[in-house]
Write a structure and sequence with these properties.
Elements lengths: L2 H12 L2 E4 L9 H6 L3 H16 L5 E5 L1 H4 L3 H16 L4 E7 L3 H12 L7 E4 L9 H10 L2 E7 L5 H4 L10 H15 L9 E5 L6 H13 L5 E3 L9 H5 L8 E5 L1 H4 L1 H4 L8 H23 L1
Parallel strand pairs: 1-2, 1-8, 2-3, 3-4, 4-5, 5-6, 6-7, 7-8
Helix pairs in contact: 3-5, 3-14, 6-7
Length: 297
C-alpha cells in the first residue's frame, strides 16, 4: 500500500480537510510569542497545539517550507520537528516544497525529503522541466511508498500565463501535464485505483466556464488524487470542491489561514494563548469538513 491509498482511507474516515501549517509568527498569540526563546520555538509550540486539536478531523496536514525558511536555520529545525511530530502522531503530511529541477539535482532533493531530517509522506512538484525531472522522485517514492502532487491547474490568477495556454490542437497546457500524470498512474495503480502521484488542482469557479473546466478535469482524470488549494481565505467554497471530487473522495482540500487565524477572526483576542487558538482552529476545521460533506449529500 502506498501513501495515496492511505490518504484515500483517511479521507473516507475523517473527511477532506488538509490543515495547512503555513505558520507565520504573526499568527501566534502575542503572549505565546513573547515567552518563547525564538520565533521558531513559538511556531513549533503553536503547530503542536493546532495538530493536537485537529488530528482526529484532518485527513492530512500540509507544511509550506517557505514559512520556515524565512526564519533561517532555526526555522528549518522547526520544519523538521513539525514533520516528525505529525508522523509520530500517526497522521499523513505533505511537504509543500514545489521542487522541479534536472534529474541529478532532483535525486538529491528526493533523498532529502523522502528520508532523513526532512522525511515526509508527500511532496509538491513542478513539472516545468519535463518528466525526467520527476523520475528521481518516482524511483525513490516506489522504494519507500511515498507520494507527490504535481502542479496541474492552480488557483492563482497567474495560471493563465502558462497553464491555460492552448496548443495548436486547441488543448490547454495543463491537459498535457494531466495526460502524462494519468499515464503514470495507470502504469502503477494503488489498491484504491489512484496513482502514487496526484496533481494540484485549485478551486476557482467564478464563472460557468471555469466550473465546466473543473468538471472536465475531474472526469478526465479518474485515477489522479487531487490536492485542492483555494478554499477559505482564497475564496473557494464547498460547492467548488464538490466539482473536483469523485464519488465523494479523490481529493483533500487545503486551508491554512482560515484555520490558523480563526482565533484572530473571532475578535476575542484578549489574553489568547495557544489553547484558545487551537480551539478556534478545531472549530474552523470542523465547520469546513461539515460544509464540504453537506454539499456532497
Amino acid at each position: 500500500m502506498h501513501n495515496m491509498d492511505k490518504l484515500y482511507e483517511s479521507v473516507a474516515k475523517r473527511g477532506h480537510v488538509c490543515v495547512g501549517l503555513d505558520t507565520s509568527p504573526e499568527y501566534i498569540p502575542e503572549a505565546e510569542r513573547s515567552r518563547a526563546a525564538t520565533d521558531a520555538d513559538a511556531v513549533f509550540a503553536f503547530n503542536k497545539a493546532i495538530i493536537d486539536s485537529t488530528i482526529d478531523i484532518a485527513a492530512c496536514f500540509k507544511v509550506q517550507i517557505a514559512y520556515y525558511e524565512e526564519l533561517g536555520l532555526s526555522g528549518l529545525q522547526t520544519f523538521s520537528k513539525t514533520l516528525k511530530y505529525i508522523r509520530e502522531r500517526g497522521a499523513l503530511v505533505i511537504s509543500d516544497i514545489k521542487r522541479g529541477d534536472i534529474a541529478d539535482t532532483a535525486s538529491r532533493y528526493a533523498k532529502a525529503h523522502f528520508e532523513g531530517d526532512f522525511e515526509t509522506d508527500f511532496v509538491t512538484l513542478s513539472p516545468f522541466l519535463g518528466m525526467d525531472s520527476l523520475e528521481p522522485w518516482l524511483n525513490r517514492a516506489d522504494n519507500k511508498g511515498k507520494g507527490a502532487f504535481v502542479l496541474l491547474r492552480t488557483s492563482n490568477t497567474g495560471r493563465e500565463d502558462f497553464q491555460c495556454l492552448k496548443t495548436a490542437e486547441g488543448r490547454q497546457v495543463y491537459n498535457l501535464i494531466g495526460d502524462k500524470m494519468s499515464a503514470l498512474a495507470s502504469a502503477k495503480p494503488g489498491k484504491t485505483g489512484y496513482g502514487a502521484f496526484g496533481v494540484v488542482v485549485g478551486i476557482d469557479s467564478k464563472s460557468e466556464e471555469e466550473r465546466r473546466e473543473a468538471m472536465a478535469i475531474r472526469s478526465e482524470r479518474p485515477n489522479l488524487f487531487f490536492l485542492i488549494p483555494g478554499y477559505g481565505a482564497q475564496g473557494g467554497a464547498a460547492a467548488d470542491v464538490s466539482l473536483l471530487l469523485r464519488e465523494g473522495n479523490g481529493g483533500v482540500v487545503n486551508a491554512s489561514r482560515s484555520i490558523l487565524r480563526a482565533w484572530q477572526a473571532s475578535g476575542k483576542t484578549d489574553n489568547a494563548d495557544n489553547s484558545i487558538a487551537a480551539k478556534h482552529a478545531r472549530d474552523a476545521a470542523i465547520a469546513m469538513r461539515d460544509e464540504i460533506l453537506d454539499n456532497l449529500r
